[in-house]
Specification:
This protein is mainly beta. The protein has one domain. It starts with a helix and ends in a 10-residue tail after the last strand. It has 2 helices and 11 strands, in the order ααβββββββββββ. Strands 1, 2, 3, 4, 5, 6, 9, 10 and 11 form a 9-stranded antiparallel β-sheet that branches. The protein has a two-stranded antiparallel ribbon with strand order 7-8.
Length: 164
C-alpha cells in the first residue's frame, strides 16, 4: 500500500517537466537529397517547400547539422548531459568550441562513425531545449550510407533539465 501511495504521488504531484524526458529516436533519415529539415518536436522530416521559421529544429546537410534557433556541441556522452547550458549556443553549423565535428572519418575505408562523446544541445523553434546524439550514418538494415539515425530528449515544461 505504501508503494502504491508513492507511485501515485509521483504521477500526480511531480511537475510535468520531471516526467517529460523520454528518449526519442529517428531511424534511417535519408540525408543524401540535399537539405533535410527536421522537427524534433514532431519527430519528422519537414518538406523543404513547407518549411517555415518555426516548424523545424535542425537542418541536416550531408554530415553537417545546423540549428534553426541555436545550438552547440558538448564533448560529453549523451547520458552525461543533464541540462542545456545558459551560454555558448550559436545559430548555424554545430561544432565544439575547438571546431570538432561529431564524427570520425576513416580515410582508408571512407566510413563515417560517430564519436561517443559528442552531444548536440539545441534551443528548438518553440523555445524548448533538446539534446541529441547521432548513432549512425548508415541504414540500420542495408548499411547504405547517408541514412542518419539519432536519439534525442526534449526538456519538458520550458526547462533546461534533461533529467527525470
Amino acid at each position: 500500500m505504501r508503494a502504491l501511495f508513492f507511485l501515485l504521488l509521483a504521477v500526480f504531484v511531480l511537475p510535468v517537466s520531471a516526467q517529460d524526458t523520454e528518449v526519442k529516436s529517428a531511424d534511417n533519415v535519408y540525408v543524401a537529397d540535399g537539405l533535410v529539415y527536421y522537427s524534433l518536436t514532431n519527430n519528422a522530416i519537414v518538406p523543404a517547400d513547407e518549411k517555415t521559421a518555426t516548424n523545424w529544429d535542425i537542418l541536416i546537410n550531408g554530415v553537417e547539422l545546423h540549428a534553426n534557433r541555436a545550438g552547440l556541441v558538448i564533448t560529453e556522452a549523451f547520458d552525461a548531459v543533464a541540462e542545456a547550458p545558459l551560454e555558448g549556443m550559436k545559430n548555424g553549423m554545430m561544432k565544439t568550441a575547438d571546431g570538432e565535428v561529431w564524427y570520425n572519418y576513416d580515410m582508408n575505408t571512407h566510413e563515417i562513425s560517430p564519436k561517443g562523446d559528442m552531444t548536440f544541445v539545441l534551443m528548438l523553434a518553440d523555445d524548448s531545449y533538446a539534446k541529441l546524439t547521432v548513432d549512425s550514418y548508415y541504414h540500420r538494415i542495408t548499411e547504405e550510407p547517408r541514412y542518419m539515425s539519432f536519439r534525442y530528449v526534449i526538456a519538458g515544461g520550458g526547462e533546461r533539465s534533461f533529467m527525470d
